[in-house]
């Protein structure tokens, strides 16, 4: 990668320092996570890292479903209880960023995987359907999975498949932390396009339970999305 190409990926207002994870460019933050400014990117990442870390009592394997350009991962790197971390995303630029700028600071504990899964909003040229995609982890190997604003962009059949895959990946007693939109439903239980999906929390809990993930707790709203925790 040339110096000019690298500069396009970096937010340099606050400098780039040896031994410190830098910040992605505004364009990459917006594409990968919808953040319009560095403040938004860091606040959301901090919140999600705290949601995950409240369940970190011992060395654990983490699965980040839709990791983007590492907005939560960057906060998890220093936590010694993160035994391993696997993040995957449909955006290759985000995964390239993670591999180049986050993975080196993890001492081999963090891995980032590009999944070329079709999504009409985020990856309309994807070659795989959601129903064809297996998460890049072994069955029963994950202690905590989290999906920050992922089910907010999955059609119903894709939502069901991701829940089944999450249940496969989690060990007994493992948890999924997931966010949903549920403010624009009217009389519907599941409504919208891949740009925005709203789902009734009871309906989402039913689908998760059917996949083998009964609801453990409903944490209420965080930044406009409902946070729900499921335990296998």
Shape: globular
Helix content: 25-40%
Mean pLDDT: 94
- The separation of the N and C termini measures 43 Å
The CATH class = Alpha Beta
> How many structural domains in the coordinates?
1
**From the 3D coordinates, which CATH architecture would you assign?**
3-Layer(aba) Sandwich
Structure notes:
The chain is α/β, with parallel strands linked by helices and 232 residues long. The protein has a single domain (22-231), classed as 3-Layer(aba) Sandwich (Rossmann fold). Helices cover 30% and strands 27% of the residues. The protein has helices spanning 3-9, 26-33, 38-53, 73-76, 92-101, 156-169, 201-210, and strands at 10-11, 23-24, 60-65, 82-89, 110-114, 142-147, 170-180, 190-193, 196-199, 215-222, 225-231. The protein has a 7-stranded mixed sheet with strand order 5-4-3-6-7-11-10, with helices on both faces. Strand 3, helix 4 (73-76) and strand 4 (82-89) form a beta-alpha-beta unit. Residues 1-7 have low confidence and may be disordered.
In short, what is this structure?
The chain has helices at residues 3-9, 26-33, 38-53, 73-76, 92-101, 156-169, 201-210; strands spanning 10-11, 23-24, 60-65, 82-89, 110-114, 142-147, 170-180, 190-193, 196-199, 215-222, 225-231.
Can you tag this structure with a few keywords?
single chain, 232 residues, alpha/beta, Rossmann fold, 7-stranded mixed sheet, two-stranded antiparallel ribbon, 7 helices
């Amino acid at each position: 990668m040339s110096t000019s190409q690298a500069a396009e990926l970096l937010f340099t207002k606050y400098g780039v320092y040896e031994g410190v994870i830098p910040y992605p460019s505004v364009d990459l933050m917006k594409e990968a996570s919808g953040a319009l400014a560095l403040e938004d990117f860091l606040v959301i990442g901090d919140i999600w890292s705290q949601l995950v870390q409240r369940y970190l009592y011992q060395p654990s394997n983490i699965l980040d479903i839709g990791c983007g350009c590492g907005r939560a991962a960057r906060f998890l790197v220093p936590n010694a209880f993160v035994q391993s971390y696997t993040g995957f995303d449909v955006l290759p630029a985000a995964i390239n960023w993670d591999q180049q700028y986050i993975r080196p600071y993890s001492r081999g504990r963090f891995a980032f995987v590009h999944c070329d899964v079709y999504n009409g909003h985020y990856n309309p040229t994807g070659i795989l359907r959601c129903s064809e995609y297996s998460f890049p982890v072994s069955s029963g190997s994950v202690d905590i999975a989290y999906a920050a604003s992922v089910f907010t962009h999955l059609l119903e059949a894709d939502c069901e498949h991701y829940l089944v895959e999450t249940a496969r990946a989690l060990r007994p007693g493992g948890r999924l932390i997931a966010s949903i939109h549920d403010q624009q439903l009217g009389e519907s239980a599941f409504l919208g396009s891949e740009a925005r999906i709203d789902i009734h929390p009871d309906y989402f809990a039913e689908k998760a339970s059917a996949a083998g993930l009964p609801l453990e707790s409903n944490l209420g709203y965080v930044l406009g999305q409902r946070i729900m925790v499921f335990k296998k």
